[in-house]
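Researcher: Re-running this chain for the archive, since the previous output was lost when a drive failed. Same request as before.
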Amino acid sequence: MKSQFLPLAYWGSYRGSSIREDALNVIVTIEGKEAIPVRAIPLLTDWEILSPDVCARIFSGDDTLQYFKGMSAHRLSPDGGHQVMEQREWANWIARKLRACSERIEAAQASHESGYQQWRQESLALLPAGAFVWREAFEAAHKREYGPNCKRARFNRDTFNPTACELNYDPQHGPCENWRELVMEGFERLIPAPSKATTPAPAVTENASSAPMDGITTAQVAAIFDGLHYTAENWPKRLSDTKWLQPALLELGAAGGATSLWCPAKLAQLIHVRRQGTEKQKTLEALNKKFKNNSVLKPWSTDWNEHYEMFNDAN
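Model: Regenerated structure tokens:
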């Protein structure tokens, strides 16, 4: 089903926009069950169906899509549990925000294509972080609604193409530079911890530094620092051959450096000091936002905060 919000009604027919080439598997496991972040749903078919506004309508109780009727979204709780998101929350808050976003862009857009791209960038972020659907239930509803034996296929065999609606859980395109981080926002605690070093860790006394013994992997660096100095696809190569980044290396791993461990606080400091002029303060604020919002970086927040306080021109 295409989007019904204006100008979303015709935006929904477009596919793909980003030139990004690396993939992200969007499946997460919660209490032993596979789940899909709500923000990932529009990307599973390259925005062909189920755009953010359509998702909001489904979860608010709209019965236009017959086989998605009654499907609920869930939200991760800070205590590690999860709860069902009420239909009224979707109807009165999320769906309305999406409609307002669409109307604002339509009123100001210089061209249809520029407005469409802006809509995709902004609308995905308006879906709530940490919201998800159970994969099994979603796939069952999707198959009945868009599968090869659905009503669309039976009554429009000459025009309906079920492959256009197939689900791809490794999307390679997104509407903005940080789309991977945006999709996984709220699920950071579900990311597996980096592998432990094979050599015995030194003993830590009560008076020893509280700095973590492990770092983050090359893949985590690419995802977290995407768009900061390098893009996600360029980070792995830069980490392996750029001398000014090497002070952040904690442990050199195998597989071409894929399993290397890095200190994110040191990386952030190195990124910041490489910038010049007004970009330096902008980069500092962008990095600070990463450490505030990404729970993976929490163990290094003290080290980063010291650097931030020292160089923050806003103080």
